[in-house]
Design goal:
8-stranded mixed β-sheet; 10 helices; binds pyridoxal-5'-phosphate; Lyase, Ornithine Decarboxylase, Chain A, domain 1; TIM Barrel
C-alpha cells in the first residue's frame, strides 16, 4: 500500500481546458500531455479531454505518442514535439524541426519554426533555403506551422513581440497553413498571440500561467502522505538528520511516508506546511528519502493511518515549488512514481 496519495480531478482539468478555449477565441486549444501529463497520468486526463471535445494532443516522444494513440483511439491528432525518427509511425503526426526532418517525411505534419527559443525548429538559414527552393515541402501536408515562445510568462518582455514578428515573417515565406503559437502563458498575452491552435500544458494542470498575478486556473490535484508513526519528544531533543530542528518544548511529531525520492525537495525544510482537517502545522527537520516529520503538537485526531495534506487548498504546487526554488512544472513532473493516483471523473 503506497504511503502517498495523489487525487486528481479530471473535471477540474476539463474546466481549465474550457476556460482556455474561451480566452483563446482565435482558434482551437490542444492539450500538451508530455511526461505523462506533467506527472499526473496521461490516460485518464486524455480520455476526459477527448470526451470534452479536445481534438489535438501533443507529446514529447514517439513512445508517448503510441501510448496516447492507444488510449484515445482513432480521431484526435497526436503530435510528437521532439525528434520524430524517420520511419512509419502510423497515427502520429510529426513536428518537423529541420530541413532534414522535412526531407525525411511525407504526409501530414506540423512545421516548427524557431523564432527565438533556439532549441528546436527551423533556423532562419533553413527557412531561407526553403523559401528559395520549396521542393522538400512537396510531399508534405502542412497541418500547422508552429513556433514556441520563450518568455510568455513575462508579458512585458520584448522577446514576445520579437518572436511574433519573426514568426509572422516566416509564415509569409511558407505555404499558407494554419498557425500554432501560444503555450499556457501565451494564451494570456492577448489576441495578437492568438492562432488557429494554442498548445497549453501547465495551465490545464492548475499551474499559474500568469505568475505574479492571481491564478486564473483551478487547482486539479491534492497530495497527501499517510502518518506511519506519532511520537512524543522532550524539550531539548532534535528531529531528523543533522539534528537541525530542536524541540523547545515537549512536542508531538508525526512521520509520513513521503520524501525526496517522491519528488519533494529537501529545500522544503523549514517552509512546508502540513494540513489535517483544517489545522496547519510545520514540517520540522530534514526531508529524508522516504520520510518527512511534522510538529503536530496540539493537533487533534492525527493518529497513524491518517493522511496529512501537503498540496491542496492551503498550499498549491506553485507555492511549494517557490519554497524549493523551482517552478510548478518541475515539481509536478518529479512527483513520485510510487504514489497512488486516484482520479475523480469529469
Ligand atoms: C511543453 C510545450 C508546450 C506547453 O507549454 P506550457 O507552458 O506547459 O503550456 C507547448 N509547446 C511546446 C513546443 C512545448 O514544448
Amino acid at each position: 500500500m503506497p504511503h502517498g496519495l495523489l487525487t486528481i480531478d479530471c473535471g477540474a482539468v476539463v474546466r481549465n481546458w474550457r476556460r482556455l478555449c474561451e480566452i483563446h477565441a482565435s482558434g482551437a486549444v490542444a492539450a500538451v500531455l508530455k511526461a505523462d501529463a506533467y506527472g499526473l497520468g496521461a490516460a485518464p486526463i486524455a480520455r476526459a479531454l477527448r470526451d470534452a471535445g479536445c481534438r489535438h494532443f501533443f507529446v514529447a516522444t514517439v513512445e508517448e505518442g503510441e501510448a496516447l494513440r492507444a488510449i484515445l483511439g482513432e480521431g484526435p491528432m497526436v503530435a510528437v514535439l521532439g525528434g520524430f525518427p524517420a520511419g512509419k509511425h502510423p497515427g502520429l503526426t510529426p513536428v518537423l524541426n529541420s530541413l532534414d526532418d522535412i526531407k525525411a517525411h511525407s504526409g501530414p505534419a506540423i512545421l516548427h519554426v524557431d523564432s527565438g527559443m533556439a532549441r528546436l525548429g527551423l533556423s532562419a538559414g533553413e527557412l531561407e533555403k526553403l523559401a528559395e527552393d520549396p521542393t522538400p515541402l512537396e510531399g508534405i501536408e502542412l497541418l500547422f506551422v508552429m513556433t514556441h515562445l520563450a518568455v510568455a510568462e513575462d508579458p512585458q518582455h520584448p522577446l514576445n513581440l520579437a518572436q511574433l514578428n519573426r514568426f509572422n515573417e516566416a509564415c509569409l515565406r511558407l505555404p499558407r497553413a494554419r498557425r500554432s503559437i501560444a503555450n499556457s502563458s501565451g494564451i494570456f498575452l492577448g489576441p495578437r498571440f492568438g492562432s488557429e491552435l494554442a498548445r497549453p500544458g501547465a495551465a490545464l494542470y492548475g499551474i499559474n500561467p500568469t505568475p505574479g498575478r492571481p491564478n486564473p486556473m483551478e487547482q486539479v490535484f491534492t497530495l497527501s502522505g499517510q502518518v506511519l508513526q506519532r511520537r512524543e519528544i522532550a524539550a531539548g531533543q532534535t528531529v531528523g538528520y543533522g539534528g537541525t530542528w530542536l524541540a523547545t518544548r515537549p512536542s508531538r511529531i508525526a512521520t509520513i511516508g513521503i520524501g525526496y525520492a517522491d519528488g519533494l525537495p529537501r529545500a522544503l525544510e523549514g517552509r512546508l506546511k502540513g494540513r489535517y482537517r483544517g489545522q496547519e502545522f510545520p514540517l520540522v527537520g530534514r526531508v529524508s528519502m522516504d520520510l518527512m516529520t511534522f510538529d503536530v503538537t496540539g493537533i487533534k485526531g492525527l493518529k497513524p493511518g491518517r493522511w496529512i495534506e501537503i498540496i491542496g487548498p492551503h498550499q498549491d504546487a506553485d507555492s511549494l515549488a517557490a519554497m524549493a526554488g523551482t517552478i510548478g512544472y518541475e515539481l509536478l513532473t518529479s512527483l513520485g512514481r510510487r504514489f497512488r493516483r486516484d482520479y475523480l471523473p469529469a
